[in-house]
Design goal:
The strands form six sheets. The protein has a six-stranded antiparallel beta sheet with strand order 14-15-13-16-18-17. It is of the alpha+beta class. The protein is about 40% helix and about 20% strand. Helix 9 packs across helix 12. The protein is globular. It folds into four domains: about 70 residues, RRM (RNA recognition motif) domain (Alpha-Beta Plaits), CATH 3.30.70; about 80 residues, RRM (RNA recognition motif) domain (Alpha-Beta Plaits); about 160 residues, TATA-Binding Protein; about 160 residues, TATA-Binding Protein, CATH 3.30.310. The longest helix is centred in the C-terminal third of the chain and has 38 residues. Its main location: cytoplasm. GO terms for molecular function: RNA binding. This is Insulin-like growth factor 2 mRNA-binding protein 3 isoform X13. Belongs to the RRM IMP/VICKZ family.
Length: about 625
């Protein structure tokens, strides 16, 4: 969203006039201004500068006696369900949604903030069903949010009613933002799936494996840190001021997962930014923690001497270690053969680095945690240098994996109770976004089939590991939120699609394979009879059961499909070889025709290799 529309222009305005306005406000632009009768277009270097231009210029700067209007340039075909609301009162900032604040000197006291977003929620809800609401980081005191409604009619009504609306003394400014999925020129694969007619998978989610190659993927690997729980309040700051300043200074997005692992002594922080932005934010956070540790040390000194100091954590007397979370897949390459890579980083940065052991037992997998903890001990400066080297190696490993592997993406449709949708989405869509980032999967909830539907479909797209993590968290959330009884096992129905010619292999002769699947996994596996293949020549396989049963059944079916695919490729290879041999032998006339017929017979109808059933 870096293309801008500049409106309410006088007919005498020239590109030079607009260049002067942008230069005076120190707002960069790319290319030239395209000036039309009464309006103009221009590109900014990125979305952040576009937002800066809107906030700085729109309704505030005169050109030839008229106040100009600056908005995102949104083609008509992309004006659908997404809108942006600006000039939201500053005391309704996003950070005020936190309901508990653990201050470093509170000694267990909890300070409660009032969730003021409820005021905005009630206003938005007057015009339709809100699917998501995300805050946009800006340099202004007032807040900006991007809102997605369930339909374009609701979004249009919200723009008409909310633009100029007075909210606690502030005049709201509302405009469309691009909705790529609404663009009819986009690929048909972006169609929304439905329960009976599953469309193609949507566009690749930014940051997920298997995305477009040839681009810079560095931003796909965020920096994940562990920080002591008692320092979280200081990192957030009063009314979120500290964390807001860090995000502005480093051009980053920082998520503090305060509600994960309730009661844990440490909380994860995720920093999304450029490698330089991640490193800068990391150092700032370490400096905040170090200062708080020193303040707490003085606080303990002030209470009493020996008793208080003995109760104070030992780490407060020393430099706090930096703890980085890294996916287990990358840790081996970080360590290097015989630990050479890790030893070199230690020597180059004058730090001591340890890595938590790898637990691969089933009981650990129930925590859905594939990450290991890298602990770096040293000064803030040396830890910062070590972080740069560690993350550089991890990013290199990620890039290598992307270029070396073609990740098999899977799409699973999981059906959940309709009443549980709110819990899965979370307030302002925060839970489903965190889950998507955690799992590395695209997670979307399809609209209900009917107004009184008792189930909703969750569309999960990602590689096998992402499926395990995403589905596991959804099962756990339903149990945690009491949508199933205390002694009731969470059982859900999942649908996967298989090529119609492979459905028989899933069923097996006389139903033997599907019966073995059910006995092995304890899941109910059904391939409905008399299915009409969809436009992709695929049919549905239904799997119902508890989490591990459902996961095992999915994996076994995927193994069957992979085997069928390999057999197809082998048969096709043999058919091609036979045709090539016949051509090379110089066969002509009837002989050539016979060779062509043999190759066609090997390939089967429609060019598909034939699979013989035993």
């Amino acid at each position: 969203m870096n293309k801008l529309y500049i409106g309410n222009l006088s007919d005498t305005v020239s590109p030079v006039d607009l260049e002067s306005v942008f230069n005076d406000s120190k707002i960069p632009y790319t290319g030239s201004f395209l000036v039309k009768a009464g309006y103009a277009f221009v590109d900014c270097p990125d979305e952040n500068w576009a937002m800066k231009a809107i906030e700085t210029l729109s309704g505030k700067v005169e050109v030839h006696g008229k106040l100009i209007e600056v908005e995102h340039s949104v083609p008509k075909r992309q004006r659908s369900r997404k809108i942006q609301i600006r000039n939201i009162p500053p005391h309704l900032q996003w950070e005020l949604t936190v309901d508990l604040y653990c201050g470093p000197l509170s000694l267990g006291t909890q300070v409660v903030f009032i969730p003021c977003w409820k005021v905005l929620d009630s206003v938005l809800a007057q015009y339709g069903s809100v699917e998501s609401c995300e805050q946009v980081n800006t340099d202004t005191e007032t807040a900006v949010v991007n809102v997605t409604y369930s339909s374009k009619e609701q979004a249009k009504l919200a723009i008409e009613k909310l633009n100029g609306f007075q909210l606690e003394g502030y005049t709201l400014k509302v405009a469309y933002i691009p909705d790529e999925l609404a663009d009819p020129s986009a690929s048909s694969s972006q169609a929304m799936p439905t329960r009976r007619g599953y469309g193609h998978r949507g566009p690749q989610r930014q940051g997920s494996p298997g995305g477009a190659t040839g681009q810079n993927h560095h931003n796909d690997i965020p920096l994940r840190m562990l920080v002591p729980t008692q320092f979280v309040g200081a990192i957030i700051g009063k009314e979120g001021a500290t964390i807001r300043n860090i995000t502005k200074q480093t051009q980053s997005k920082i998520d503090i997962h305060r509600k994960e692992n309730a009661g844990a002594s440490e909380k994860p922080i995720t920093i999304h930014a450029s490698p330089e932005g991640c490193s800068t934010a990391c150092k700032i956070i370490m400096e905040i923690m170090q200062k708080e540790a020193q303040d707490m040390k003085l606080h303990f000194h002030g209470i009493s001497s020996r008793t208080a100091l003995s109760a104070m954590p030992r780490s407060y007397n020393d430099d706090l270690p930096l703890k980085i979370l890294a996916h287990n897949n990358f840790v081996g390459r970080l360590i290097g053969k015989e630990g050479r890579n890790l030893k070199k980083i230690e020597q180059d940065t004058d730090t001591k680095i340890t890595i938590s052991p790898c637990w691969l037992r089933l009981q650990e997998l129930t925590l859905y945690n594939p990450e290991r903890t890298i602990t770096v001990k040293g000064s803030i400066e040396t830890c910062g240098k070590a972080e740069e080297e560690i993350m550089k190696k991890i990013r290199e490993s990620y890039e290598s994996d992307l270029s070396a592997m073609n990740v098999e993406m899977e799409t699973v449709h999981l059906f959940i109770p309709a009443m549980s949708v709110g819990a899965i989405i979370g307030k302002m869509g925060q839970h489903i976004k965190q889950l998507s980032r955690f799992a590395g999967a695209s997670i979307k909830i399809a609209p209900p089939e009917t107004p009184d539907a008792k189930e909703r479909m969750v569309v999960i797209t990602g590689p096998p590991e992402a499926q395990f993590k995403a589905q596991g968290r959804i099962y756990g959330k339903l149990k945690e939120e009491n949508f199933f009884g205390p002694k009731e096992e969470v059982k859900l129905e999942a649908h996967i699609k298989v090529p119609s010619y492979a459905a028989g292999r899933v069923i097996g002769k006389g139903g033997k394979t599907v019966n073995e699947l059910q006995n092995l996994t304890s899941a109910e596996v059904v391939v409905p009879r008399d299915q009409i293949p969809d436009e992709n020549d695929e049919v549905i396989v239904k799997i119902t059961g508890h989490f591990y049963a459902c996961q095992l059944a999915q994996r076994k079916i995927q193994e069957i499909l992979a085997q069928v695919k390999r057999q197809q490729q082998m048969l096709q290879k043999n058919a091609n070889a036979a045709a090539a041999a016949a051509a090379a032998s110089g066969a002509t006339g009837n002989g050539g025709a016979s060779a062509s017929a043999a190759a066609a017979a090997a390939a089967g109808p429609n060019g598909q290799p034939q699979l013989r059933r035993k």
